[in-house]
UniProtKB/TrEMBL annotation:
Keyword entries, A-Z: Signal
Domain Fe/B12 periplasmic-binding: 53-314
Similarity comment text for this entry: Belongs to the bacterial solute-binding protein 8 family.
Source species, domain of life: Bacteria
GO biological process: cellular response to iron ion
Name of one Pfam family that matches: Peripla_BP_2
Organism, scientific name: Pelosinus fermentans B4
Name of the molecule in the record: ABC-type transporter, periplasmic subunit
Length: 316
């Protein structure tokens, strides 16, 4: 009887080992037969395989995808992707033959495996493309650098390149760590106030990506300081109240009608600004718009640019 009990116990142990091994093998096995992903709006799309006909409808996803997947998997990028004034991947983008705008007929005709689109695009556009059978992935527009890292991870998952996505995020974190270490010597008394200009005026208020760039660059965002919101413009009175140490000037002539050097001269010579520290000390810096407006991994370069403008002595 004892012998039978021992044999039964031994068989039970063997069965547990087999089941355990089988379970581990199932967990580690690569996905086969396609997979599903859920976008920011809760819409589930089914992908039969890693997408190889990818279309991007925002500059942020253009920049992420170009560094994330081989270019032959990208069917189309936005019309801004090869503009070196606003795109950080303009050279690579030239190798992708098709460029698109937010035109549903054009996008549908391409028959992409997946379309990446930002949540600020009209819902009617998104739904029209979905109704035509195109897998549409809507992502949330980042408002912080942490959000940018999250979006990179999301997109990497959708295209089946999680490992490369993690490498991109890790590189960002390493770069940001290096910048912040170099700024450890900046005392509270040395901390500079910065105002960002577009060709329309002072921008980049509370909750904007520029607000977070300022946090990582160790500066005070002048727009946020005087209570300007994310999508608001600064009045001259607010710029004067912020009394910035540094003006960050635009470099991208997006409307083709304004000379950026003339715009800078206009700000520099404005009688209302002559008492400001940035004007008296001639601290007006042209910083590439492609860095400061980026919602991809290249936003780190915006942090570098702002830190260098404010604290050149610490070599960020």
């Amino acid at each position: 009887m004892k012998k039978l009990s021992f044999i039964a116990l031994l068989l039970s142990c063997c069965l547990l080992l087999v089941v355990g091994c089988s379970s581990n093998q199932q967990q580690d096995a690569p996905k086969t037969g396609g997979y599903e992903v859920q976008d920011f709006q809760g819409h589930v799309i089914k992908l039969p395989h890693k997408p190889s006909r990818i279309v991007s409808l925002s500059l942020g996803t253009d920049e992420i995808l170009v560094d994330l997947v081989p270019l032959e998997r990208i069917l189309a990028l936005t019309y801004l992707a090869d503009d070196p004034e606003i795109s950080n991947v303009s050279e690579q983008a030239k190798l992708v033959s098709k460029k698109v705008k937010a035109n549903p007929e054009t996008i549908i005709a391409l028959q992409p495996d997946v379309l990446f689109i930002a949540d600020w695009q009209p819902i009617e556009l998104i739904q029209t493309i979905r109704d035509a059978g195109v897998p549409v992935y809507v992502y949330r527009t980042p408002s912080t650098i942490e959000d940018v890292k999250h979006v990179i991870g999301e997109i990497a998952h959708v295209v089946g390149e999680e490992e490369m996505g993690q490498q991109m995020v890790t590189q960002m974190e390493n770069q940001l760590g290096t910048i912040q270490k170099s700024l450890e010597k900046v005392s509270s008394e040395e901390r500079k106030t910065v105002v960002l200009f577009s060709l329309m005026g002072g921008i980049g208020g509370q909750g904007s990506l520029f607000d977070d760039i300022c946090r990582y660059a160790g500066v005070v965002n002048g727009a946020s300081k005087v209570g300007v919101g994310k999508n608001e413009m600064m009045s001259k009175e607010q710029i004067i109240a912020a009394n910035p140490d540094v003006f960050i000037m635009p470099t991208w002539n997006y409307n083709g009608k304004t000379n950026v050097e003339d715009f800078k001269a206009g700000v520099r010579d404005d009688p209302a600004f002559q008492s400001l520290r940035a004007i008296k000390e001639e601290q007006l810096f042209m910083v590439p718009d492609r860095h400061l407006s980026s919602s991809s991994q290249y936003i780190v370069q915006g942090v570098v640019d702002v830190a260098k403008a404010a604290y050149p002595q610490y070599n960020p």
